[in-house]
Each structure stands twice: as structure tokens, then as C-alpha cells.
């Protein structure tokens, strides 16, 4: 009820959305305010806006509704013989092109463990881990060991991506100074966030001419392709996106920039939990795949 009213802004629209009468919904609001002993909506010209108390109530309601949805999902899986669900998330550099192949092998060994991808945690998967929104994060950076339990998956190289028509597209590598005259397309407007800043911009004391935030990797690649700027992405992430794109890739610095991908779990995850089993299997699988190819 609170969520519906907050989204609609009026009792009439919220009542229509909930399938109840306007008078019935108004009664529910008054009864809720009576039980709580405080006003949860400001009323002005038939429009309702949340008070601070109402905002706090909505925050808790969204957590509860999310948990109810997860419970319903888990119970539906139980009826299919799946006893546990591992909720998986990645950061903004993540990709899932590898997941179907891995799950095909994992499910044969562990049919009792299901997997759910939580897509809206990429900007801060560590916070999602702490909240319990996900059970396992896959991230290409070092994680504080005192806060989380990590397992290395494989080493990856950060590559510059440029449109084919770019003047520097034929070079073997790009020096850090080259980015000072470029529009840089990334997930964050603030260049001080993320592993590229840590490994490149901060170390070499250089910043791009302009930073454009696109938020989604596929959009970043499309904008680079059409000449709006350049970017830097992990090769593991972009390998499947380059087959039909008019984009060139090259090393960043002559030596290259590298990152290690990790699985990340909560610090005290039990050794025999479904999450640990999933993480261990993924680590073994990627260590084997690392010596072959990540283009599978």
C-alpha cells in the first residue's frame, strides 16, 4: 500500500492500482497512522507525499517485499528439486557469457543447487553482499580480506577500445598521456571510482579531457563504435562483444595493465554452504579454462 501510494502520488490512482476503492484505501492510511502514532503522508491538493516517518516505513516495506519475492522464488524451486539458491552478482565490468557453459557442468554435479542472477547490484556488489541481496560477487579487483572471503579466478588484461577510424587505432599500445585529449566513456561520471583510475589515471597523474557516463557496457561499446570517445574494459568482458563491432582494441602502456578476477563471499561463509561449493567449482573451472581460452 505505502509503495503504491508513494509511486502514484494520489489515493485515487493508488486505489485503482491496488484494485480497492478510494474510501477503503483512505481508511487503511488512517488506520496505519493511528497504529504508528504519526503522520506518514503530507496531504496537499489531493496529492500525497511521504513524511520522514513515511520514507522510513517505505524503506522497510521494500526490504520486506523483496524478501517475500525471494521466498516465493525459493519455494517454487524447492518443488522442482532445487534445495538451495546461490544469488550471483558482478560489478560494472562483469559479464555472463561464460555462465551457461559453466552451469551446464555444475548442474550435472549439483542438481540441488540453483542459480539466480541479480542484475541491479553492479555499482556496489560489496554492499549487496553485506545486505544479503546476493550470496556471491564476481569482481576484477582486490577485496579487503578482513571483510570478505575471496578466491582468485584468473588474470585478465585491461584493453583500450577505440573506433576503427580513430587516428591511433593502428598502434600497438596507448600511453597514459594519450587519454588526456580523449573523451572517456565509462560506467562512472567520477573518474576516481573504479579499477581503471586506480591502475592508470592515478598512477600516471592524468585524466581524460571529458568523462561520459553510460552505465551499461553494451552502451559504452556502441558509443565508442560511433566515435563518441574511447574506453578501457577487461578483455574477458568484451571478447563476445567485439565479433561484429567496428572497434579496435590495444594494450594500455607497453607492459599492459592487468587485473585478477575473484569470487567474493561474506567473511564467515561456511565451508559446506551452497555458495562455497559454487565458488570452489567456479574457481576450479576457470583455472582449467585459463590455460585454454576465454572465448568459449
TrEMBL record:
Molecular function (Gene Ontology), one example: DNA-binding transcription factor activity
Q: What highest taxon heads this organism's lineage?
A: Bacteria
Q: Which InterPro entries match?
A: LysR_HTH_N, LysR_subst-bd, WH-like_DNA-bd_sf, WH_DNA-bd_sf
Keyword match Transcription: yes
| Key words, A-Z | DNA-binding, Transcription, Transcription regulation
Identify the Pfam families for this entry: HTH_1, LysR_substrate
- The HTH lysR-type domain extends over 1-51
The similarity comment for this entry is: Belongs to the LysR transcriptional regulatory family.
Q: Which PANTHER family match?
A: HTH-TYPE TRANSCRIPTIONAL REGULATOR, HTH-TYPE TRANSCRIPTIONAL REGULATOR METR
Q: What is this protein called?
A: LysR family transcriptional regulator
Q: Which organism is it from?
A: Sedimenticola selenatireducens
